[in-house]
Write a structure and sequence with these properties.
The chain is mostly helical. Helix content is about 75%, strand content about 0%. It has seven helices and no strands. The protein starts with a helix and ends with a helix. The relative contact order is 0.13.
Length: about 160
């Protein structure tokens, strides 16, 4: 019984270490993506990352296991990707308002996709469904590669 408890504690420690490693990798990816933003834009991105999506249960796999914050890696990557797109849309909106950028219906529609929370959530959920459908293919990808897959899938 004591040996089983020690084995279980060892597994918990390994899981915690793995979760911490994944969290660090996600943070590095996020930092790479928001590194060129102003402090004001970074705050927007960070606020967006903290914003709740839709509560859903996750299946037990490394890519979808919960982190200490209760979010899955998939959720974190999707939030980071859409936070970047939101920051870009806000920056573009400001440029249009200041007359620095000519607005077109296509640009306005794209911006509205990210500026409108309901629309943005719809696309985030679609990205989550994509990841859920492609679990086998995406398993084992580094967080940076998974982030790229999320972003490219959404943009295509």
């Amino acid at each position: 019984c004591a040996a089983a408890a020690e084995d279980h504690d060892g597994e918990d420690t390994e899981e915690n270490e793995e979760e911490e490693k994944v969290e660090e990798e996600v943070e590095e990816v996020r930092d790479e993506q928001v590194g060129g933003l102003s402090p004001e834009q970074r705050k927007v991105v960070e606020d967006e990352e903290r914003e709740s999506l839709v509560d859903r249960s996750s299946q037990a796999s490394p890519a979808s296991s919960s982190s200490p914050t209760g979010r899955t890696l998939h959720d974190q990557l999707i939030r980071a990707a859409f936070a970047k797109l939101l920051a870009a849309a806000r920056e573009e909106q400001q440029a249009v308002r200041q007359g620095q950028l000519k607005d077109t219906p296509a640009k306005r529609n794209r911006r509205d996709t990210y500026l409108n929370m309901k629309s943005r959530r719809k696309w985030q959920i679609r990205s989550q469904r994509f990841l859920d459908r492609r679990k086998a293919e995406l398993q084992g990808l580094a967080p940076a590669a998974l982030y790229g897959a999320v972003l490219l899938q959404h943009l295509l």
